[in-house]
Design brief:
By secondary structure, this protein is of the alpha/beta class. It has one domain (3-239): 3-Layer(aba) Sandwich (Rossmann fold), CATH 3.40.50. It has nine helices and seven strands, in the order βαβαβαβαβααβαααβ. The chain has helices at residues 12-23, 35-47, 62-76, 102-130, 141-144, 150-170, 187-195, 199-205, 215-227, and strands spanning 3-7, 27-32, 51-56, 81-84, 133-137, 176-182, 238-241. It has a seven-stranded parallel beta sheet, with helices on both faces. α2 (35-47) links the parallel β2 (27-32) and β3 (51-56). α1 (12-23) packs across α9 (215-227), α3 (62-76) runs parallel beside α4 (102-130) and α4 runs parallel beside α6. The longest helix has 29 residues, at 102-130. The chain is globular, with a radius of gyration of 17 Å.
Length: 249
């Protein structure tokens, strides 16, 4: 049975990814800092047809990442896929560069970039053993920049760079590394619209398909594809799952 771990999966896009993987009958580990919320999503995974498990994990803390992966191995013997979906709690906060403090920037880096680095370094031996897949959830902001989201755009671009490096480094071991840039209906997106009232009109006017993606049925299934053997010859890529919003690839 396929076993995957999804960070930041206690809600939003991460929850959607977990549920999409559950529909394939996979074992899905919900990794999040909040244990109660993680356990609730694990229960939803079971209801959707998968094997739901939860583990407390702070992706920016090396010891926490190591302990979480050790718990996965102790319970299931290995790991076939990792999805790094966790983002800073400040990700949806819109503000000009002059108002972004160093502490704010460091929080973005800690979760998005340091977390990706720590997860990748710790998970690589497990993924090499299973010839598995690593997926980083990035954003179109990392391609084209986003007004009032300088810190978020910076770390999302950094993730894409790391994905390309790891695809080259890990390919000989049979490990695939890709990114997904979603545009989905989520609590974070709702908060972003509130933070920047003009954003909703800008975002929606750019989507040829005319709607935000569903976290499970649109975005989750795309991530599941990259985790699966159906994408066994795909690596080093960023898949845009955004209804056609961003033409850059």
């Amino acid at each position: 049975m396929t076993t995957v771990l999804v960070t930041g999966a206690s809600g939003g896009i991460g929850r959607g990814i977990a549920l999409a993987c559950a529909e394939a009958g996979w074992t899905v580990w919900i990794a999040a800092r909040r244990s109660a919320e993680a356990a609730a999503v694990a229960d939803e995974v079971i209801e959707a047809g998968g094997r739901g498990r939860s583990v407390v994990c702070d992706v920016g803390d090396e010891a926490s990442v190591g302990a979480a992966l050790a718990e996965v191995v102790a319970a299931d013997g290995g790991l076939d896929g990792v999805v790094h979906n966790a983002t800073s709690g400040l990700s949806s906060r819109a503000s000009p560069l002059r108002d972004i403090t160093v502490d704010d920037l460091e929080d973005h880096v800690r979760v998005a970039v340091r977390g990706c680095y720590l997860l990748g370094r710790a998970a690589f031996p497990l993924l090499a053993a299973s010839r598995g897949s690593f997926v980083a959830m990035t954003s179109e902001a990392g391609f084209e920049g986003k007004r009032l989201l300088a810190a978020y755009a910076t770390v999302k671009a950094s993730q894409r760079g790391l994905v390309r490096v790891l695809a080259r480094e890990w390919g000989p071991a049979g490990v695939r590394v890709n990114a997904v840039a979603p545009l989905g209906d989520s609590p974070a997106m709702a908060r972003a619209f509130v933070s920047d009232p003009a954003m909703e009109a800008r975002v929606m006017s750019r989507i040829p398909l005319g709607r935000l993606g569903d976290a499970a049925d649109d975005i989750g299934v795309a991530v599941r594809f990259l985790l699966s053997d159906e994408a066994r010859y795909v690596t080093g890529q960023t898949l845009m799952v955004d209804g056609g919003s961003c033409s850059i690839s």
